[in-house]
Each structure stands twice: as structure tokens, then as C-alpha cells.
TrEMBL record:
UniProt domain RNA polymerase sigma factor 70 region 4 type: residue ranges: 123-172
SUPFAM superfamilies attached to this UniProt entry: Sigma2 domain of RNA polymerase sigma factors, Sigma3 and sigma4 domains of RNA polymerase sigma factors
Protein name: RNA polymerase sigma factor
Taxonomic superkingdom: Bacteria
Similarity annotation: Belongs to the sigma-70 factor family. ECF subfamily.
Keywords: DNA-binding, Sigma factor, Transcription, Transcription regulation
UniProt organism field: Sediminibacterium roseum
Alphabetized InterPro entries for the sequence: RNA_pol_sigma-70-like, RNA_pol_sigma-70_dom, RNA_pol_sigma70_r2, RNA_pol_sigma70_r4_t2, RNA_pol_sigma_r2, RNA_pol_sigma_r3/r4-like, WH-like_DNA-bd_sf
Length: 189
């Protein structure tokens, strides 16, 4: 997308058309990230929209001149905004969310460049991750998917490093169990 720089420039000037186009371009990307942390569509949409508000409010701080493709730099910068928005939300709810039913609508937000097999594998993995408790799911996402260290996770969530490591270990154990059960079910179905 070669016109990303012009969209960013337009957003810096509060141009509604530029904001709309950037929103449409990044919406599925934001929803994918949000669904790693919450399982209800309404909650994911709320977090995505809150992330976009932060993006537009702070777009002047984006530095697209650091080298590399502006598109990739913007996605990386926005990903950090979305992840932090999700973490803030989980902090506000004190990570005491009850397990919620998985919403089938949430699985419709795969990147348009993915193949059918990529989408299927993605859906199965996300489905399994959503079955983890909110605390395990959050620590797993932050460590495995977002690349945070245990020290960073502990600081972000207000827990000890040991609790982060323990939650990750339990999340991995439970995830293996969930995926094994899903695979066995498919083999015998």
C-alpha cells in the first residue's frame, strides 16, 4: 500500500477520509489482536475502537522515517497500541473475567492474504487459546505471541515473575490438552 504515507499525513491533519481509510485498512488486523485477549465480539470491537482513538490522537508521534517500509512500521506501532489497550482493559477488570462462550463471529477476522489452510489452522489455534482462562490466555499471548519477557509481563500485569512463569507453564499444559482433545475428536468423528 504505497499511499500509507499520505493517509498518515491526512490523519495528522484530522482528515476524516484519511482516518476512515486507515481504519478500514487496519480494522481486521486490530480485531485479530483483540481476539487474542477477549472472546466476545462486542468486547473486541470496543477494544479495537479504543485503540483507533489512541492511534488517531497520537498519530503525530509515529516516526515513519526510521527506515523500513512505512506500512510495516505503522502496523508494528499500532500493534503495540492495541496490545497495551487490551492489557489496560484486563487490568481494569482485574483479570477476574469468567470464562465466556466462544463467539463464532470472532473467527472471521483473518488477513485477506492468508490461504484457506492458514485460516483453518489459525482458527483452530485461536479456538484453543480462547478456551484458556483469561489469566492463562493473557500470559500466553504476551509471552508467546507478543514476545514479552516474564519481567515485562509481571510489570504489565502487576504479578510476580514467578507467577508469570507458572501461568505460562499451566497455559501451555492446558493448551496441549485442549489441542490433543480437538485432534482426537476429529480423528474419531
Amino acid at each position: 500500500m504505497h499511499h500509507i504515507s499520505s493517509l498518515i499525513s491526512g490523519c495528522c491533519k484530522n482528515d476524516r477520509n484519511s482516518q476512515r481509510d486507515l481504519y478500514h485498512w487496519l480494522y481486521d488486523y486490530a480485531m485479530k489482536i483483540c481476539y487474542r485477549y477477549v472472546s466476545r465480539q462486542e468486547e473486541a470491537e470496543e477494544l479495537a475502537n479504543e485503540s483507533f482513538i489512541k492511534l488517531f490522537k497520537n498519530i503525530q508521534q509515529f516516526d515513519g522515517t526510521r527506515g523500513g517500509e512505512t506500512e510495516a512500521l505503522l502496523k508494528g506501532w499500532f500493534k503495540r497500541i492495541v496490545v497495551n489497550t487490551c492489557i489496560d482493559h484486563l487490568r481494569r477488570t482485574h483479570l477476574k473475567l469468567v470464562s465466556q462462550e466462544i463467539n463464532e463471529e470472532g473467527e472471521t477476522f483473518a488477513d485477506s492474504q492468508e490461504s484457506g489452510i492458514d485460516k483453518l489452522m489459525y482458527l483452530e489455534i485461536i479456538d484453543a487459546i480462547k478456551k484458556l482462562t483469561p489469566v492463562y490466555r493473557t500470559v500466553f499471548n504476551l509471552f508467546v505471541i507478543e514476545g514479552f519477557s516474564h519481567e515485562e509481563i509481571a510489570k504489565q500485569l502487576g504479578i510476580s515473575v514467578g507467577a508469570s512463569k507458572s501461568n505460562l507453564s499451566k497455559a501451555r499444559h492446558n493448551l496441549r490438552k485442549i489441542i490433543t482433545e480437538q485432534t482426537e475428536y476429529k480423528l474419531y468423528a
